[in-house]
Amino acid sequence: MRNKFALISSFLIATCFLQDLKAQVYSGMPDSIQRKPVVKANTDISYFRLSDRNRKLEVTDTLFDDFEKYNPARAFNNGSLTLGNLGSASMPIRYSPRESITTDAGFHQYDIYKMNLDEFRFYNLNRPFNDLFFSPLAGQRNFLVKGHFTRDFDKEVNVSLDYKRFNQEGFYNNQKTKSTGFGIGIYKKFPEKNRSMFICFLANNHNEEINGGVSTKEFFGNDIYRLRTAIPVRLDGDTTRHQNFSYSIDNFFDKIGEKYRGHHRLQIENGYYRYGDHDSDSADDQFVYQDYLTDTRGVRFYLGFTRIRNVFDFSFRSKSVDVKLGLLHNYQKYDNNISSRSIHDLVAFGNIGLKLKEISSFNGHAALGLGSNVGNFKLEGELVINPASQLKLTGNILAHRYDPTILQEEVYITNQLVYSNDFGKINEFVLGAKLDWQIMNTHIEFNSGIIENAIAFDQTALPYQSSDNIEYIQLIFSHKLKWKILGLENSIMIQEFSDNIFNLPGIYSVHKGYVQFPIFKKRLLTQLGLVFYNIQMNEGLRFMPATGIFYQGDEAIEYFPYSEFFGNFKIDQFRLFFKIDNFSDLLLRKEHYQIIDYPQFDYKIRFGVRWQIFD
User: Fold this and answer.
1) Rounded CA gap, 519 and 525, in Å?
2) Residues 310-365 pLDDT 10s
3) Of the four listed, 12, 42, 454, 473, which is most buried by Cβ atoms within 10 Å?
4) Where are the domains of the chain?
5) CA-to-CA separations, 267 to 169, 517, 549, in angstroms, rounded
6) Rounded (5°) CA angle 470-111-382
7) Phi and psi dihedrals of 52, rounded to 5?
């Protein structure tokens, strides 16, 4: 209750700040389409992330920039398969190696909705800045709201507030989602000491009712059942909640002598992963839960956690060489109400950056596990060549060894053991290359990898470790074209596995075409277009509600040409969009799926507004 009160109080404080802002009044200024509509000529706003403080990104009026893509699962780089509802459990379409060599709990179905420390934005600015977004769907029970506020205070202090919420009742029974993220960051400079301090609090809460999918498909196509709540689903008494609170403080010592720098991070996290179903004695329950149904009186899963992370690093920088050495200690404690487990991961790591003449550079990273994660390692290398202006070639290599996740090793359901495994470590090796041609707005990427001891979940939702090496290749291509009022954007990902034990799609692409033109004496910029999503997969995936994992299905997913029609409108810092989600349904009148038995929504009309406010 105290946590909820703290969140509400913090957001009310931010709202009070917003109420004091004064709108700028424009008069006698050029058309908004013919100028960059900044509020003042001296506006200077940029942001950076703690993962790369040296990379400053300007906050500019970037026209629409996929403004209408409110769903993170629909963004190409985050492309994910979902259960149909906004904020529902998701699985990435593109295979990617794990990032870390420390212990991983394994619960990632809500990652695309989460706020995380390394992606939180801190600002350098000369005036307050606010970015507000709201998008309702079919009344007040389905909406998305986002708000961002940042301003400087006296004595070199900047404060940023970030808030977002998905609230979706859905259109089938028992599929409500509510995902809330809140963050507050304080950035304090000490110029006389060449030191910067960052304090950050993040809260992520994800709640979902999972209906187990529709129990029969024979009612689809009957107009009586266009009201989707009339279609029976398998589960009606379950709830999922993932809760995570993060408290952190980073200190950067930017000059120790002439060329040396230091950094320390302390981060404390606590929370839990929880699932419960109070009624589990039906045939539908047996179908959904399989071996996870250990008690017909109900299904319960719980795993609480505490994590304490300490990072120390020391770096040397010159004109041509940049070296960083560091040590990470990650304490983790997990409690499943049956037993508790403490883990002390220790990682020694180092980075090196070399500038090779004027047109090339090399970046390397090495990490070695020394504690509970002993034997794990990660070696990365990246060579960048700039043979011509606005042309960049990149070659990269990765060797990686890490442990199975806790979820893959052991699970208790309703205080009874479902499985316990002694899997070996996973080894990965990847070679890749990239081409970025800025003048043509083109990106091409190729990866070839091999996975030894890969782990997947079989058709009974139980984990197993493959005895064969899994080889895969990936090709990613994206480009943007603009000619007069016409625009075309294409992003394509092709991946192929020697044995696709993950049942991931082989082809995923997003194609966007639009016309863009000004109206009302060039005051209102208008964009009308169509987005087409192409997902091709041979075998489908099923979903296990108790633990949130996607596992091998026994049915194919029928191809469906999903599309969205949209309109964007912009005047100064105010934007409005409308979108017909699942526009194809208007023509085909056919249900479709990304996950077996979990239908995507029929066509819906959504509106949204975004308003950037200065001062």
Assistant:
1) 6
2) 999 999 988 889 999 999 999 999 999 999 999 999 999 999 999 988 889 999 99
3) 454
4) 2-614
5) 34, 48, 27
6) 55
7) -155, 85
